[in-house]
Fold:
Amino acid sequence: MDSPRPDSLGPNEEMERLRSLLVGPDIARISQLEQSVADSKVTSERVAQVLPAAISKRTQSDSQLASALSPTIEKTLELSIERNPEKLAEALSPVMMPAIRKSISQQIKAMMQTLNQTLELGLSARGMRWRFESLRTGRPFAEVVMLRSMVFRVEQVFLVHRERAVLLAHEGVRDSTFDNADLVAAMLSAIQDFVKDSFGGQQDENVLSTLEFEDHIVWIERGPKMVLASVIRGSAPVQFRSTLQDTLNELHRTHREDLDSFSGDTAAFEASAPSLAQCCRHATKESSSRGFSPVLGIIVVAVLAGIAFWIVSFWTHRARENELVRLLEDEPGIVVTGTERTGDGLKISGLRDPLASDPEQFIEVTHLDPAEVRFSFAAYQSLEGALIDRRVALLLGVPSTITVTYDDSGVLIATGSATRHWVESAGPKSLSALGLPLDASRVELPALTELENAVRHVEAVPIAILPGVGENFDFDETGLRDRLEALNAALVAESFSAEIFIRPHWFNSEAVAGLAGDWTARLQEKAIESMGDDLQFHFAAGLVQRTISPQLRIGLPRNTTTVLVFEVRVRP
Amino acid sequence: MIRHKICMLGAFAVGKTSLVRRFVHSIFSEQYQTTLGVQIEKRQVEVNERSIDLMLWDIAGEDDFFRVPESYLTGAAGYFLVVDGTRSSTIEVAVSLSERAVAKLGDVPSLVLANKADRTDAWDVADDLGFPTRPAGELIRTSALSGDGVARAFDLLAARIETSSGRGQ
Ligand SMILES: Nc1nc2c(ncn2[C@@H]2O[C@H](COP(=O)(O)OP(=O)(O)O)[C@@H](O)[C@H]2O)c(=O)[nH]1
Ligand SMILES: [Mg+2]
Structure:
């Protein structure tokens, strides 16, 4: 340097002087600035300390801060979204989803489900039960449906990595169907992909959210990185989806870093077990939802019993009516020609033999109410065996020892044993009253006692008195004496006595008038004469009877013959 | 537990299903194949003393691959490219599938299998296949029929996947 040196100052000192000459006035300001810069650092640190508090304080008092900041924040967000929209969506979705879900769309879904269930349940037994409950409690049916339809159990929960399609965690009850949980998870992913590919579009809306197989339903909730699939048995309420979504969101938050660095190792997701288990516990106990209140139970049972009783009694009543008709038809002497159900009961019409059983007795037998059954029978005479028997029994006075059967050839056949009297009288009666001949030849007659024999012998010997014989009647010649002796002996042996009536049969009333009395006295006389005084019988006069057949009257000459017939009446 | 999705890629009838069948046996997935067009089987392998579940995705039926849905590949940690050693035309298909897989999955581990190695009589492909494999020229001869090379192929791919995910070695 060739310039002169003003003084002996060193080069540094010179520089300092030069500087003060040139920028002297500014130095103070520079140091002031320096100080200010240092200060500002201090302040931002301090502001950083107080800013949160300051903001919250300011925000409390007015909204000026917010409005001042909002353009900046908006701008920042815009930029951020523009640059990496997925990142933001990913970050926001766990926060936003719950809010979104609680929005109207959820309520519409819930309504839809309720509506579907209501329609579905319309006529099912369950539906009826709920309708009844609605009536009973006065609750709207829809509400009952909501309350009662939530019978479900979450049996399996799968947490699946959405992109990798691998199982991250799994909770659930033991079930052979789900033994290979990771295969299930992979299949779920494949199914999801399949649906997505099949129906096009990348939007989540097109992705399957419900899957049904056998009696399970799989609800699939999708988050940005994970899918939560729950296998449900029964019908879960729509609200349970929210629970699943909340769980999934929470898991997204807690596993954010694990998800970002995921490379196949699921160890980190073991921590999600409690949350998943929580989902599994989410269920409505079948018992509580099935549980009837005892009162309702009793009412239902009573109503059912009532209905059952009504059905049973209706059919019983019908069955009884049918039984009555059947019994009547089977009954001999009754013919049913028609039945009619009228307002006040059953009307049965037909024919009835007066000797047939009383139809009323069958009403009793079938336990029907007599007031509800009316008979309308016309009388007729039945030729059914039972009725003929009855008629025979009635008209012929058939003793219990006799059986009368009706032969197809139109003859009544009597078997058994009976008195001679019955056998002798029944034949003619049968013919006159029933129009049927009676064959009594096979009836066993009782062995005659000594007395009966004696009586019969006496009775069997009519005495014919020829004209002119009267005075000279020979008692011995008639054989009557022997017979009377035998009768007397029998009467003595049995300590009986007897009256012997003499019935003169004659053909000329004038000629024999008084004959009976006359002959009675004469026979008495003769009997005492030959047998002694101790006669157990005596002859009675009277009972005079004429037997005048028309032929005899015409053909016989006057005063021809008189026939004496004996009738013995034995008394103890 | 470590789980990986593995895809079986290759032309029709190269032996993808046979290889999976040879390697695992699981009845479960069969019932889905007709409806979904995909069959998933599982087999556990050991890599460095760690158990790894391989979820093997196989196109079910006799589809040609080009109708396979995009999502088939999604999320795969690795894949096999299967070639039929008796049909050189299957190499072409494998090359085109390989391009598609790289586009979708990026640089995930893969292995080229020259299957039907038992049929040496009808062998129709060059040893290196003339195939841009990674690493170049690497391929494993397998036979689903005899089982030769099958387990080795799956073990190797599993190991590659573990290495690439920063665990292996
Ligand atoms: N010889 C022989 N045949 C094979 C082998 N692998 C598969 N095949 C046969 O090749 C045909 C096609 O096999 P498949 O597994 O269905 O092929 P994909 O269509 O690729 O699933 C079948 O008939 C198999 O039996 C192999 O290693 N050796
Ligand atoms: Mg196949």
